[in-house]
Specification:
By secondary structure, this protein is α/β, with parallel strands linked by helices. It has helices at 15-24, 66-79, 88-94, 97-106, 121-128, 154-161; strands at 5-9, 29-33, 49-52, 83-85, 114-117, 135-139, 149-151, 174-178, 189-190, 199-200. It contains 6 helices and 10 strands. The chain has a 4-stranded parallel beta sheet, covered by helices on one side. Strands 5-8-6-7 form a 4-stranded antiparallel beta sheet, with helices on one face. The chain starts with a strand and ends in a 38-residue tail after the last strand.
Length: 238
């Protein structure tokens, strides 16, 4: 008998393809919708395989607490010897660009000069004086271009951090990062989509994707936007 699969998630939009494939393969599974809830550390987790599909942009769908609850669940599962796909080490990378940059650096890859800042406007402004111009801001935790703004002058940045348009990272860690202008404002997807392989790189025989544009904006506007809240239909709460 196949072991039961437990799926940890908070984004309903990601689930339909997974449900279809699991049902097509006739694999037993149970969904754990992770937002608010509790973890009884005195109980044993159910027997099975646990698939973590949590997202660093959960807070954009009204699920700010999901990341912290996921950390507690993963510690519980791993502490009891359960098999976890995308466990605590993977999740630490998923929700922190600081972790990602250091992992890239350890692997011998170059990353843009970055300063991680925790604090209010004055702390951000002090850190900005250590950055080469132009630079961008971004959220340490988040995807979809959250918090990404380009600045050409320190005066623009000073006005921004005191404005209503400034949105802090959900984990309180803001990143100031050297702006690296691409030679051309597009990416080339490479690989076999049928097998789920996708690499962004200089592919010669693949169509260009121009949905993400990094053209300089001298007025300090956001470079990328994010989607609104998704539907909550069909979710099962943990």
């Amino acid at each position: 008998m196949d072991p039961k699969l437990f799926v940890l998630y908070e984004n309903e939009d990601w689930m339909p393809p997974l449900r279809r494939e699991l049902e097509r393969a006739e694999l037993p599974y149970e969904e754990w919708f992770v937002h608010e809830g509790s973890v009884n550390l005195g109980e044993e987790p159910p027997v099975g395989i646990f698939f973590n599909r949590m997202s660093p942009s959960a807070h954009t769908r009204g699920h700010l607490e999901s990341a912290d609850l996921t950390r507690a669940i993963l510690a519980w599962l791993e502490g009891r010897g359960r098999r976890v796909i995308n466990g605590s080490r993977a999740f630490a990378l998923e929700v922190s660009k600081v972790h990602q940059y250091e992992a890239l650096r350890r692997a011998g890859l170059r990353v843009p000069h970055t300063i991680a800042v925790v604090g209010g406007p004055e702390e951000l402004k002090r850190a900005a004086h250590k950055m080469p111009l132009p630079f961008i801001t971004k959220h340490n935790c988040g995807g979809k271009g959250l918090g990404v703004v380009l600045f050409w002058t320190l005066e623009e940045f000073d006005r921004y951090v005191h404005s209503d348009g400034f949105v802090p990272s959900p984990d309180s860690v803001m990143l100031l990062q050297e702006y690296v202008e691409s030679r051309e404002p597009f990416i080339n997807p490479c690989g076999d989509r049928r097998r789920g392989v996708f690499i962004c790189g200089p592919g010669r025989h693949e169509p260009r994707v121009s949905a993400l544009s990094f053209r300089p904006l001298r007025d300090g506007r956001r470079l990328l936007s994010h989607d609104g809240p998704s539907s909550s239909a069909g979710r099962r709460k943990l």
